[in-house]
Design goal:
Elements (H helix, E strand, L loop, with lengths): L1 E6 L2 E4 L6 E7 L6 E7 L17 E6 L2 E14 L4 E8 L1 H6 L1 E9 L1 H11 L3 E5 L6 E9 H16 L3 E6 L2 E6 L7 E4 L4 E9 L6 E5 L5 E6 L1 H7 L3 E5 L6 H11 L3 E9 L9 E6 L4 E15 L2 E9 L14 H6 L19
Parallel strand pairs: 9-12, 13-19, 15-17
Antiparallel strand pairs: 1-2, 1-5, 3-4, 3-20, 4-7, 5-6, 6-7, 8-10, 11-12, 14-18, 15-16, 18-21, 19-20, 20-21
Helix pairs in contact: 2-3
């Protein structure tokens, strides 16, 4: 592995001065972070002095592949321990931090992503195609919320779950899927430890749909859950721009048995948020395909290992910022996935 820091135009390779390096990502973040400790001493002349400025470019590579390309956002110096702690973020932080206002009419999520990233100088890599036009007004929300909302709305018709993440300097938006690179984690092989927890504390077994006058108009329920766990009802209001039964079914999907899993395994570069793994561990009962909700990769003392938070369900960070245009709300939710009509998008500076 190689860790490079650009200080004032001079690039220095400092991996020999970094006893530990951590690279991580999360379902609800479009960017990844890099943290490391760097040997630093005001008295020990054997330790090279490396000048690290705030905002300095940092690049982390493994076997010639760039895993991280970002910038220094935090540092802490501790003279007693002779080290400097550095925290870096890739360009995903600019997707999160930049806010704007825009209006869209029948625009594809992929076109929204390309256009807005272009305005902010963010490079585009592989962008998932949805073919689903959306109409939405956004006022004072982040670039991330706009793009993620567009893909959330599209996902309700495509059935896909989408993940935004950076590959080097370029933004990728991927549909979560099983690939040839899917890692198998097995007890007695590359699995170090695993923990599993289950809970029904947030369980919903029935959803009651109420109309404008607070009159009950419909119920959506899961009879098997009611038989097993009892009646636990959630109340929702019928809206003009949503299918209430679809919303109710989603609530039942989201508030079922919660299963949280964490595994520690020997390192695999493919184990990043948005990808999946196959786990086989007989003692804990972990068997099957799981989706990575968060990941931490650690290199320390010559060893490389992962800590993964796994989920049975293929989730995405669902965002629903903004609102439907007034005329659109009066007509309904708009066209479906099969539409071949011409679309247009309107951008308004906020």
């Amino acid at each position: 592995m190689e860790l490079f820091i650009d200080s004032g135009g001079a690039v220095t390779e400092v991996s020999s001065l970094a006893p530990s390096i951590s690279w991580s990502g999360d379902l609800r973040q479009c960017g990844r972070s890099l943290s490391f400790s760097l040997l630093s001493s005001p008295t020990d002349k054997e330790i090279p002095v490396v000048e690290i400025e705030m905002g300095a470019p940092v690049q982390f590579q493994m076997d010639g592949k760039t895993l991280f390309d970002g910038f220094v956002f935090a540092r802490q110096i501790d003279t007693e321990s002779s080290k400097m702690d550095i925290r870096c973020f890739d360009r995903g932080i600019y997707v999160k931090r930049n806010e704007l206002s825009r209006s869209f009419s029948n625009a594809l999520p992929e076109d929204i992503a390309v256009r807005l990233c272009g305005e902010f100088g963010i490079s585009i890599g592989s962008i998932a195609k949805t073919g689903i036009p959306i109409s939405r007004n956004f006022v004072g929300v982040s670039l991330y919320q706009i793009i993620q909302t567009a893909y959330t709305l599209a996902s309700r018709e495509t059935g896909e779950a989408y993940q935004m993440r950076f590959n080097g300097v370029a933004l990728d938006i991927v549909a979560k899927a099983v690939t040839e690179e899917t890692l198998v984690i097995q007890g007695g092989s590359n699995l170090i430890s695993a923990s599993v927890s289950e809970s029904i504390e947030r369980m919903v077994t029935q959803v009651a749909i109420y109309g404008e006058n607070d009159a009950l108009v419909d119920t959506v329920k899961d009879d098997e859950r009611i038989r097993l766990y009892g009646l636990m009802q959630k109340h929702i209001k019928q809206g003009k721009d949503k299918d209430p039964r679809q919303e109710a079914r989603k609530i039942l999907d989201d508030f079922g048995v919660e299963r949280k899993m964490t595994v520690n395994n020997l390192g695999g570069l493919e184990c990043i948020t948005g990808n999946c793994v196959v786990v086989e561990e007989p003692y804990s009962g972990l068997h099957g395909l799981f989706w990575i909700d968060s990941d931490t990769h650690t290199w320390k003392n010559g060893l490389y290992f992962n800590k993964l938070s796994l989920n049975y369900r293929r989730l995405m960070d669902e965002q629903e910022a903004g609102s439907l245009p007034r005329a659109k709300a009066a007509r309904g939710s708009g066209r479906g996935a099969g539409s071949q009509e011409r679309y247009e998008y309107i951008f308004k500076d906020g």
